[in-house]
Structure formats: structure tokens, C-alpha cells
Amino acid sequence: MLKKLHSVVLDKDKCIGCTDCIKRCPTEAIRVRDSKAVITEERCIDCGMCIRVCRNQAKKASTDRFDRIHYYEYKVAIVAPTLYSQFKNVYDPNLILTGVKRLGFDEVFEVAEAAEIISNYSNEIISANITRKPVISSACPAVVRLIQMRFPSLIPNLMPVISPMEATARYARNYLSKQGMPKEKIGIFFISPCAAKVTDTRNPSVVKESCVDGVISIKEIYVRLLSEIKKIKEPEILMTSSYQGISWAKIGGEGSNTKLDDYISVDGIENVINVLERIEDNKAEVDFVECLACINGCLGGPLAVEDAYVAVNNFDKVKKHINENCKLRDISLYNKELSLDWEKPLKRIQVHMLDNDKNKALEKVELLENIFETLPQIDCGSCGAPTCRALAEDIVRGKAKIDDCIIMLRKEYNKIIQENIPKYIKNI
């Protein structure tokens, strides 16, 4: 079972017990009990879907507060390229990176540079046929956890390389230590649009320990950053990447860098699930699959500020600016001695079985099916579970009752009325 280090959390004071979140959660991790949502930790993949759909903002991501950077003597920001899409009429990444630095960081690096490096390394892996095809991108931690949980047979298909975020942190710490800064005094903070990245640093799946010291959401710094950008007359030259790496923020960016003709790019967790099901059934005849949990890729991340579709428009203007006016910093963080490979194998996430005893578990499966057959099977969500089958499972686990279903409760009520009407009439 996962450690209790998920980033998606519930604010009970804001929750009104509606069913928006339970209907859209891709792993059925949420229930409504006693008029409040309850998140089942071992089922959550931190995709942020509940954050998006909650009308009362009762779901949020537990990211690091900005003032945590002051715990470190030397403060480093590593910036997701999504940040470049968040501002109207600001299309120069150097301007945005300078603004980030002026918030209180000693150094700022682009995650996009590591994305370029990983693109090249991934092409080597694909060419060498090291990973089973179709190769599935491992860049989105929500998708990786989804595969661990729902599609464990596809784990061998995942690209066995660390994320651009993790690679950037690793490169940055190595680069700065060579400049004379003690590693323990360096604090590296990822500026993120993604809730799952928080979990990936606190409870990493494929590295022994993350090199990222904290994750700060774009929402956390946006207002201060916007104010800072307006003050800048001449930005520093801080960019180190081309649009090749920056394009990873947008759906299709990673796929277009594979040099393959047969690849597909899929965004939105529900669409990702459909494609993974096809791969599992051997119905996806491609060499590479780019899967991103958010609509429009990381541009649609739940911790971003701008609307995903407006962000795409802004991003295209950033691309144009880069192609016409690109000024790059004359340094490179790349170090061939630092490995990009997974440090430990990716393991299946085992959701709680109905019973540890195999025979009892089989009996409970049979009971679950019998209960399910009696339910209306309309998946209305009024019981607080996303589907009738989920309610049947909850009943077997002792976490719900059959009369939590209002249709079953109504049937029982009508039965009692019908049985007692004759007695009532007779006594008149």
C-alpha cells in the first residue's frame, strides 16, 4: 500500500457532499460518507481530476509553501515550461525566468533542457528495442501510477527513464556543487502545474530518493510573479533550452521528438484509460504512446492558473518568440556520468483484496456479484459510491449498507407499505 504522502487532500469544511468528484475519479478512489467526500489513499493516483471538477474547491493539492525556500542557504528554482503559457502578452521565457529569480531564488534552471536530453536518450532506447512495444512514456507520474494500479501488465512497456523534473534537479545539484556550493545547503524547488509531481518527490516510484526538495504550485507564485515581471526592464539571459524541450508541456511535444512515424499522443485521463485498454488487448499498432493525464498536456495541469485552451494559444506565441528572438545562456547542465535510468524496478500497486484468506476472498467475490445483481445498475451515485458495483464492494467490505441505495430503500419502503395496507384497512 502507498505511504500516506498523496498531494491531493480534502478540505472538509468546504465539501458539501455532492457527487461530482466520485463520478469523475478514474480509479474510484472517492466515496461520499456522512455528507462528506472520503479519499481512499491506496486508490488515488493524484491526477487532479477531483480538483478540477469540485465546484466548492474542497479538493486541493498539498504543495510546499513558498517561504520554505528560506530553509536553505542557496535557493534554486527549476521551472516547468508550462509556466511560459500562463501570461497574456508575455512570451519571452527569459523575462519569466528572471521574474522567478527575483522572487528570492539564487539560481533558475529550465526543466525543458533535461526534456531535450531525455528525448535523445529515449530515442536510443527505442532504437535498441530495450523496452517492449508500444513503448509508453513515463513522463506523467499520474499515468505511471495508473498503470501500476489498473494495468500492471503494461509496466514492461513503460520508458525506463527518470522524469525531466528529476533529471534537472540531479543535474542542477551536481553543477552547483562543482561551483563550490555544498550539496546539503542547496534547496531545489520545482515550479509545477501538476499535483502528481508532488507525490513523485515525496514518495518516488523509480528513484531511491528524489533530488527535489520541494514543489511549489504555479498558483502559489502567480500573482507575485506577475507583479515582478512588470517591473523588469531588461531580463537576464537564463534560457538554456530550445522549443524541442519546451514543447513537452503540450500534448504531442514528447511524441514529436521520438523520430518515429508510428506514435500517438493522448491527453485526458479518461482517454488515456481507453488507449491503455486497447494496448492491453493488443489493438494499438504503434511504436510509442505519449500519455498525459491532463487535457492539452501539462498546460492543463490542475495547479496552473490559465485555462488550458488559452494556454495553448499563449504557448504558440511563446514558440514564435523563441524561433524569432531566442537568446540562450551559455551553460549546459548535462553530465553524461549522471544516469537517467530508473534506480529501482517499478512495482504493481496492490489495492486491498477483499480478504487475505484466498477462500474467504472467493466467497466475498461471489457475495459481491450477488449483491450487484440485486442493485439497479444505473450508477447514479446517490449512494455515495461511483457505481453500483463499487457500492456492492463497499457492502462486502462492511463500509456501506444495501439501503444506502435510495432505489433499494424505496423498494423496501413500498414493500412494507403494501404489506401493512390490508391490516390498516381491516382495522378501520
Characterization of this structure:
This protein is an alpha/beta fold and 428 residues long. 39% of the residues lie in helices and 11% in strands. The protein has 15 helices and 11 strands. Strands 6-5-8-9 form a 4-stranded parallel sheet, sandwiched between helices. Helix 7 links the parallel strand 8 and strand 9. The mean pLDDT is 93.
Q: What sequence of helices (H) and strands (E) makes up the elements?
A: EHEEHEEHEHEHHEHEHHHEHEHHHH
Query: What fraction of residues sit in β-strands?
Result: 5-15%
The main β sheet shows up as: 4 strands, parallel
Question: Termini, distance in Å?
Answer: 62 Å
Uncertain parts = none
Q: How many β-strand runs?
A: 11
Question: What order do the helices and strands come in, and which of them pair?
Answer:
Blueprint: E1 8-10, H1 20-24, E2 30-33, E3 36-39, H2 49-53, E4 59-61, E5 74-79, H3 93-102, E6 107-110, H4 111-127, E7 135-136, H5 141-150, H6 164-178, E8 186-192, H7 196-202, E9 214-217, H8 218-231, H9 243-246, H10 253-256, E10 263-267, H11 269-280, E11 288-292, H12 308-325, H13 358-374, H14 388-396, H15 406-426
Parallel strand pairs: 5-6, 5-8, 7-11, 8-9, 10-11
Antiparallel strand pairs: 1-4, 2-3
